[in-house]
Amino acid sequence: MTRTRSRRRFLAASGAALGTAALAAAAQALRATPELDRRVSRFLDAERDRWDYLNVPYQDGRILHDLVLALGAKRILEIGTSTGHSTIWLAWAAAKTGGVVTTIEIDRGRHARALANFERAGVAGYVDARLGDAHELVKTLPGPWDFVFQDADKEWYLQYFLDLDPKMAPGGCYTAHNVARPAARAVREFLARVRGDPRYDTRLAEGGSGAGISVSCRKPG
Predict the structure, then answer these.
(1) Which helix H or strand E contains 44, and what residues bound it?
(2) Mean of the per-residue pLDDT values for the chain?
(3) Do 104 and 130 form a contact (C-beta atoms < 8 A)?
């Protein structure tokens, strides 16, 4: 086992104990390399049509990756890991910005599969994976957050935003999946809330799967 791989494994296993700030500092030494880019790309291409458990489609994962890069986001929060497809795209971007992804999953089996996928993809050192109830855990995470992606229980979309709004960094972006044809009332209420908030510029990301990703970026100042 190489020294770098050993260090990544340590960081992934101890992320909760270290805390996001310390994990981010440690991840600075693991910035993306051409080798990592090839490894992640190969993994994502090989697994492209195999993701289940309501993971995001490939093209939506790429959108998230590109948004994080464009923003230069380092403090990234994901609500709803599933088995890790979107997390890997976010972590790949974090490897390039010097950041780290904190991700939350309530299902123990999916959480375990996600951890294995992070190792296989080579991004474990950029992920602080939390097993727990996001309804409660989100309230305890201190922020500030440069980038948030929510893809969990749709009935809680508005409440997640209300809990995280005070923790968004100026210029930070709050994104949500499955908003193109929202069925849940809370998703519609969430969209109405962010679109009506003068502190945010809100749009729908272009070029995705059709499920819809809303992007609400907080205006500086």
Answers:
(1) helix 34-46
(2) 88
(3) yes
Q: What is the pLDDT of residue 31?
A: 65
Q: What are phi and psi of 21, to 5 degrees?
A: -65, -45
Question: Before 220, cis peptide (omega within 30)?
Answer: no
pLDDT of residue 16: 36
Q: Hey, how many other C-beta atoms are within 10 angstroms of the C-beta on 189?
A: 15
Q: What is the largest CA-CA distance in the chain?
A: 52
- Write the CA distances from 198 to 164, 166, 175, 195, 214, integer angstroms: 17, 15, 16, 8, 16
Query: What one-character DSSP code corresponds to residue 154?
Result: G
- Structure confidence by residue, pLDDT tens digits, 4-49: 343 333 333 333 333 444 445 444 445 668 999 999 999 999 999 8
More confident call, 181 vs 5 = 181
Spatial CB neighbours of 64, under 8 Å, sequence gap ≥ 6: 56, 86, 89, 90, 93, 149, 175, 213
